[in-house]
Amino acid sequence: MNAIPEYNSKWKWMIIGLVLAFLYIPILLLMIYSFNESRLVTVWSGFSTKWYGELLRDELLMKGFKTSLIIGVFSASAAVVLGTISAFIMQRFTSFRGETGFAFMITAPLVMPDVITGLSLLLLFISLGQFFDLFAQRGMLTIWIAHVTFCTAYVTVVVSSRLQELDNSIEEAAQDLGAAPVKVFFLITLPMIAPALVAGWLLAFTLSLDDLVISSFVSGPSSTTLPIAVFSSVRLGLSPKINALATIMVLIVSFAAFLGWWLMSRADKRRRQEIRASIT
């Protein structure tokens, strides 16, 4: 009788191991080959860190990396604000005219092909450029607007799922005690959905940092993002500098994800301690 659960447990861990290996072994190999001395990406000839130095001296990649970081931070921050407002409207104001259309328009970028989104935004900026000098030349502003457009949809979905799980009785109790709706939102609702906000910000930042298709439509010659710079260099031949760059990006994203997890777990632990103290 006990052999069946043990057998299922072995298969479970075997499947989990295969899935993790499928996902992370290519990334691990990429990081290992970033320390390859050879110029050939697939031929190991010894340990060396010279490609990191070459990467730091590559002005095109470094400029693209800086541009992508700036756009990613501001795009994710704006997407969190707009996505939180959209999610709050969709979950708490469910009986207004145009509710279905509003939800469809907010989440449309999730299923819209990137080519269609990029071309639509390009035509929009060209039309606006005829009336406003601000959009006459495409640059960081147009990339930022484009990234906020599709990142907001992802943040809305993340925050909406969190709002669905909240117990409204806590907010109603605060309002019964005389708290204004704005005060309830900032003091009660916002702390409870903070983990979703952090997750949405990290997701939006990653999507913005990774975007190539939409950025290629709305960028100009003076605002080359990192994916565009990498794609341009890869067409001329794959260099170990790309491995070094990818390793740095993986470490940055991993550190950001770990930091977000640590802050959320710390806040959750503090909230549990406050609840226990209030009960006792």
Automatic annotation (TrEMBL):
It is found in: Cell membrane. The keyword Transmembrane helix applies. The keyword Coiled coil does not apply. Residues 65-260 form the ABC transmembrane type-1 domain. GO terms for cellular component: plasma membrane. Its main location: membrane. PROSITE patterns: ABC_TM1. Keywords: Cell membrane, Membrane, Transmembrane, Transmembrane helix, Transport. Pfam families: BPD_transp_1. The chain crosses the membrane at residues 12-35, 69-90, 102-129, 141-163, 184-207, 242-263. GO terms for biological process: transmembrane transport. It comes from the Bacteria. It is a multi-pass membrane protein. Belongs to the binding-protein-dependent transport system permease family. CysTW subfamily. PANTHER family: PUTRESCINE TRANSPORT SYSTEM PERMEASE PROTEIN POTI. This is Putrescine transport system permease protein.
